[in-house]
């Protein structure tokens, strides 16, 4: 199963993505399973290159991703917006504003299926 994770908004989305990648790489169940995929702006769009993290998960990997993402969100000192997308197209966008209950947010993200898109 593949989950794509993108930091859409925050103080610096490229730095936040790099920080998240490093954070996920410290989790033994995710080590070597999360890679950065650089995406240039779509044809006709202006903007910077964006980073998408692609997690290829096996048994137990989804729970490891949820647990690790929860802790990463707890550590945010600034507002951040993260988008998670399942390989089958399910997508959710979560705006986290100085997180007070990251566990609830992570459960909503991994259990919900919406069509929202990052701007």
Quick structural gist:
The chain has one domain: Alpha-Beta Plaits (2-Layer Sandwich). The protein has 119 residues and is of the alpha+beta class. It has a 5-stranded antiparallel β-sheet with strand order 2-3-1-4-5, covered by helices on one side.
Structure description:
The protein is of the alpha+beta class. It has helices spanning 13-25, 61-75, 102-111, and strands at 2-9, 34-39, 50-56, 80-86, 91-96. Strands 2-3-1-4-5 form a five-stranded antiparallel sheet, covered by helices on one side. The longest helix has 15 residues, at 61-75.
Based on the model shown, name its key terms.
Alpha-Beta Plaits, globular, 3 helices, 5-stranded antiparallel β-sheet, disordered C terminus, alpha+beta, 119 residues
Secondary structure layout:
Blueprint: E1 2-9, H1 13-25, E2 34-39, E3 50-56, H2 61-75, E4 80-86, E5 91-96, H3 102-111
Antiparallel strand pairs: 1-3, 1-4, 2-3, 4-5
Helix pairs in contact: 2-3
Strand content: 25-35%
CATH topology: Alpha-Beta Plaits
The number of domains is 1
Main sheet strand line-up: 2-3-1-4-5
Helix content: 25-40%
Determine and state the CATH class. Alpha Beta
Q: Spans of 5+ residues with little confidence (pLDDT < 50)?
A: 113-117
Query: How many β-strand stretches?
Result: 5
Question: Which series of helices and strands comes N to C?
Answer: EHEEHEEH
CATH-level-2 architecture: 2-Layer Sandwich
Q: What does the overall shape look like?
A: globular
Largest sheet: 5 strands, antiparallel
Could you give the distance between the termini?
25 Å
Q: pLDDT average, as an integer? A: 78
Structural class: alpha+beta
